[in-house]
Design goal:
The chain is an alpha+beta fold. Strands 5-8-12-11-10-15-18 form a 7-stranded mixed beta sheet, sandwiched between helices. Helix 6 packs across helix 8 and helix 23 runs antiparallel to helix 25. The chain is globular, with a radius of gyration of 33 Å. The termini are far apart. About 35% of the residues are buried.
């Protein structure tokens, strides 16, 4: 093939004139490209392969312009294989001399260079077109510098580290431990003192960064309007003022005397955003042997016993495959999730500054890698200091454009695990946000009486008379079966009201898009959007047309935006706990709620006493001694290491409340402690609904779910909420108490919750926050830190212990089972852990000894056959026993029965 295309670099100019034969060949090349629609943009534009820096197969131009460029500048060097214009075959020289499969050893010798692990890392980062035999251009010189550094030992006689391996190892340590640049420089100076004088160890952070700069991925800095009206990008990149508000793009800083003015020559924008293209980051997942195989896991695994353990098992994923079989036929195409959330980089007490990172993550990976920090890609950094609110779509334009390109055309990508190129495409599955950000992404307002994005205009929320707040009280009977007795109950809910309506179901993408078009809503990037959308939003819940509707496949999704289970669970717990503990300022049982209670419900026993002007106590509030008992119990609780934080630090024994509880603390308390804590103090009719909502969240957040379990939860949750409505006042039920009614449906459609809640994103934001080293340049500091972190993480895959499926370091109490050599020891005595701190000894009380004995027997796999024998005997002896009775009998009699059975 190479011999056939020597014409590309020969015979362009003959006797000072352009050759007609060469022009005919160029026409053949253009015709070849146009025959491959996946490589054509807009019907007439192809990638220009000329030698201009802006082109070089990066920029789409119309075919006539491409011809002119080729006549003037010629083809980019070594483009014998037209992979950017539809040719699938990869030249053998490019693949065989550079790439190695995962099974090949690091000592494999190629024709031209000795491939160590770090040579392979450089070639993986460079891409399949990189050829070490060629003369380097400016862009490739970074990779050649790293290859040479990978051949040189850090000092004479050292066989463990080269100059490159030492540099990337130091960089990885800096990023993992979040060390400062000053620390890095000081440590480098100290290492220089330990090594021989002729060593090649980098002298400081600057020289290290310069050496490994080829491992970094690109970032684009885009100027923005200071009022978030627009970004100077695409067709607007040459404007000098905002086309909406007219504000200047650049600062006009004037210096000098009164007679002579000196204007700054360097143009400094008022505001700028950072965009990190996702295409090279997704390509890098296939460039490394550590991740390339894992990107196909979603199609190679099979569901077991009908349990959904991954989004690929869910109906939403399968529905998308059915709608777009051409996309799903290539299993290496990438499914993405997107989340956005804001944070205060200076803390709550510092300067008010709202920074909004937008992050994408691939769902192709297996459960142990999916949603992990290593595979979360910062994509857009929306600048502060103000919250972008509904204008966040302005900053998402580059991302949406790239997603459209990845969907329509894709990009040639090298899969090192299969040693072949393929056309990688990508699709965004859904967004993950808290409830306020849900409105920013979807365009549906999450405030007011139409806050529920599933019920939409079918909401039955109303405004309370005294407090003026919205209430979702008695908004759940419409989800019950038509023959359920609660529908006819006129006493326990809104008095004298029967419910005959039924929830119509969640609207499809086509129905929503039709509604948006009929109402005439505008995208926020449109010039007249603010005026038009403001008028329309007064009559409905929509406040804009989301930019995500520009994606051609968005309407086909069964679920586009996720309700965040993390924040919903926390808000439900806060309302229950603060009301039961009667926390001043946070309880929902206030004087106003009591005053308006009997205007909506028939509960005369809680009405105000006209003689004393006081309200009677309610049965769902604990008294002072009961609150003390609960808090003392919480203070003494101890959890397994890493399971939960120390809840004892949250106990305020004086004010009889808990404070400073994080979302995960509420998660643990809600699912594990709340039913136990309130069991002895509340009547059964109150304790049971609280326990049921606790168990609902516990089952919903399981790591694996079946369709039958989720259908049961979907049927149970309206009943649970109705039971809570029979207990608590209408002021208790805000939008957060209503949203659980839709969570089981979302899980049934999209799969397990832990792939779609905000815990991983919140932890990732904390990591981003730690990259702020220069508080005067927040966004730039994060950008530099993130690029370095990406390079370090990519390099760590090539360390001896760089398998991303393993943690970087052992936990403080972690012990490997391989260290335990006693094969005769029972499994229950082989825990993967050890004691923390000094060991102590004490004698167990009789009840403690009995409980410990029973626990060991019931949790030892070797004893399970004997338990089965015992249960079989008891069922024969007492045929009418149910499962609960059998379990109780096992706890009482099995230890003594087991002792007699074994001894006999």
């Amino acid at each position: 093939m190479e011999d056939d295309r020597e014409w590309m670099y020969e015979g362009r100019i003959v006797n000072g004139m352009f050759s007609n034969e060469w022009g005919d060949k160029v026409d053949e090349f253009v015709a070849f490209a146009l025959r491959h629609p996946e490589c054509v943009n807009g019907g007439t534009a192809i990638r220009c392969p000329c030698t201009l820096v802006k082109c070089q197969n990066k920029k789409f131009l119309n075919v006539e312009t491409v011809k002119v460029h080729l006549y003037r500048n010629g083809f980019v060097p070594d483009y014998y294989v037209w992979i950017y214009h539809g040719e699938k075959q990869v030249h053998q020289r490019c693949s065989s001399s550079v790439r190695m499969s995962a099974s090949e050893t690091d000592q494999m010798v190629s024709d031209n260079m000795n491939h160590t692990t770090y040579h392979r890392m450089v070639c993986d980062a460079a891409g399949p077109e990189f050829n070490p035999d060629e003369e380097p251009n400016a862009e490739a010189r970074n990779f050649y510098d790293m290859i040479r550094a990978g051949d040189k030992p850090v000092y004479e006689g050292n066989s463990k580290h080269t100059q490159l391996s030492a540099a990337v190892r130091m960089l990885e340590i800096k990023c993992r431990h979040r060390c400062s640049q000053a620390w890095f420089d000081d440590m480098s100076n100290f290492i220089q003192e330990l090594l021989p004088q002729d060593n090649l160890m980098p002298l400081d952070f600057y020289s290290t960064k310069k050496l490994v700069r080829g491992l970094g991925l690109p970032v684009q800095v885009i100027h923005c309007c200071v009022n978030n009206c627009m970004i100077y990008w695409g067709d607007d990149s040459d404007l000098n003022s905002c086309k909406k508000c007219g504000h200047a793009r650049y600062k006009q800083k004037v210096r000098g005397s009164r007679n002579r003015l000196y204007i700054r020559k360097l143009k400094v924008p008022y505001k700028k955003m950072h965009y990190f293209p996702i295409t090279p980051r997704l390509q890098r997942l296939y460039a490394s042997t550590a991740t390339a195989n894992e990107m196909r896991w979603h199609s190679e695994h099979h569901m077991e016993d009908g349990k959904m353990c991954h989004p690929s098992d869910a109906p939403a994923w399968k529905h998308f495959d059915g709608c777009f079989p051409d996309f799903s036929s290539e299993v290496r195409n990438v499914r993405l999730g997107l989340f956005a959330d804001g944070f205060q980089p200076f803390g709550q007490s510092g300067q008010q500054y709202s920074l909004w990172p937008v992050v994408v993550t691939p769902y192709n990976l297996p459960p142990d890698l999916c949603m992990k920090e290593e595979f979360m890609f910062l994509t857009v950094l929306v600048p502060g200091p103000t919250n972008p609110k509904g204008k966040i779509d302005v900053f998402l334009q580059p991302l949406i454009a790239e997603l459209k390109s990845l969907w329509g055309v894709g990009v040639q990508t090298y899969d090192i695990s299969k040693r072949q190129n393929f056309q990688m495409r990508a699709a965004l599955m859904w967004t993950i946000n808290d409830f306020p950000a849900y409105s920013m992404m979807s365009g549906w307002s999450t405030a007011g009486m139409l806050a529920c994005p599933h019920c939409m205009e079918d909401s039955d929320a109303f405004r309370l008379i005294k407090s003026g707040k919205q209430s979702w009280f008695d908004n759940h009977r419409k989800f019950l079966p038509m023959n359920h007795p609660y529908r006819r109950n006129t006493k326990d809910f809104i008095k004298n009201r029967k419910v005959t309506k039924q929830f119509p179901g969640v609207r499809s993408g086509d129905e929503i898009l039709k509604d948006l078009n009929n109402r005439g809503l505008r995208k926020v990037i449109d010039v007249d959007a603010e005026v038009v959308n403001a008028a329309i939003s007064k009559t409905c819940g929509w406040n804009k047309r989301s930019i995500f509707w520009d994606l051609p496949y968005w309407r086909e999704h069964l679920l586009r935006h996720n309700l965040d289970v993390m924040h919903i669970e926390k808000n439900v717990f806060d309302n229950i706990f603060n009301t039961v503990f009667n926390i001043p300022g946070k309880t929902k049982d206030t004087y106003k709620s009591r005053d308006e209670l009997n205007k909506y419900c028939r509960r005369p026993q809680f009405a105000q006493n006209l003689v004393t002007n006081k309200y009677p106590d309610v049965p769902f509030v604990l008294n002072k001694s009961q609150k003390k008992d609960v808090l003392e119990w919480v203070k003494k609780l101890r959890f397994p290491d890493g399971y939960a934080s120390n809840l004892g630090r949250c106990v305020d024994a004086k004010k009889l409340k808990m404070f400073g509880m994080k979302s995960h603390d509420c998660h643990v308390f809600m699912q594990r402690l709340l039913p136990i804590a309130l069991r002895e103090f509340l009547p059964n009719r109150i304790w049971e609904p609280i326990t049921e909502i606790s168990l609902f969240f516990k089952q919903l957040t399981s790591s694996s779910l079946t369709d039958e379990e989720l259908r049961n939860l979907d049927e149970q949750i309206p009943v649970i909420l109705c039971n809570l409505e029979k207990i608590f006042p209408p002021s208790f039920f805000d939008s957060m108490e209503h949203l659980p009614v839709h969570l089981a449906y979302e899980a049934r459609i999209a799969g397990p919750v832990h792939y779609r809640w905000m815990y991983p994103p919140e932890r990732y934001l904390r990591k981003i926050k730690h990259k702020i080293m220069n508080k005067a340049q927040v966004e730039g500091s994060i950008s530099i830190g993130y690029i370095m972190d990406e390079a370090a993480k990519f390099a760590s895959f090539y360390f001896k212990e760089g398998d991303p499926t393993l943690p970087l370091k052992d936990k403080r109490n972690e012990v490997y089972l391989d260290d335990i050599v006693d094969d005769d020891m029972f499994e229950i005595f082989k825990p993967p852990g050890k004691a923390i701190g000094a060991e102590g000894k004490r004698y167990l009380a009789n009840n403690e000894y009995t409980a410990a004995h029973l626990y060991v027997l019931m949790n030892c796999p070797e004893v399970q056959p004997f338990i089965n024998v015992f249960v079989t005997e008891k069922r024969k002896q007492f045929p009418n026993l149910n499962d609960e009775a059998v379990n109780a009998l096992t706890e009482q009699e099995f230890p003594s029965w087991f002792e007699k059975y074994v001894c006999s």
